[in-house]
Amino acid sequence: GVSQLQVLTMEEIAQHNKRDDCWMVVRDKVYNVTRYIDFHPGGRGQLMRAAGKDGTELFYDTHPWVNIETMLEKCLVGVITR
Ligand code: HEM
């Protein structure tokens, strides 16, 4: 639940940049997308471009109609601090 969200830095998020441990930031929210990678319609390689990074621009440049907040609700692990 919301009460378990972590406050994370980009340095921490950058550690999770691998296929078996992959986090991604979109609009200041941090998602653990590890279990989603194999299901991404755009392919693994495309999604991995944002692995351990802020993928906001790539995400909205590619598919602004995709509702990430509902799709990845259960993958939400935290919010970023700048
Ligand atoms: C397609 C979700 C991250 C590139 C899609 C589609 C969904 C989706 C639902 C199908 C859209 C449709 O057909 O209307 C997600 C989610 C992401 C994510 C939940 C975050 C975890 C990314 C990133 C990139 C990317 C970072 C990098 C540029 C693409 C591309 C397609 C696509 C190129 C089009 C595939 C095609 O139609 O040939 N994605 N995406 N996605 N995604 Fe993502």
Automatic annotation (TrEMBL):
GO terms of molecular function: cytochrome-b5 reductase activity, acting on NAD(P)H; heme binding; metal ion binding
Coiled coil: none
Domain spans labelled Cytochrome b5 heme-binding: 5-81
KW Iron (keyword) present: yes
GO cellular component, one term: cytoplasm
Protein's name in the database: Cytochrome b5 heme-binding domain-containing protein
Keywords, alphabetical: Heme, Iron, Metal-binding
Statement: the UniProt record of this protein carries the keyword Heme: yes
Species this chain originates from: Coemansia biformis
Similarity annotation: Belongs to the cytochrome b5 family.
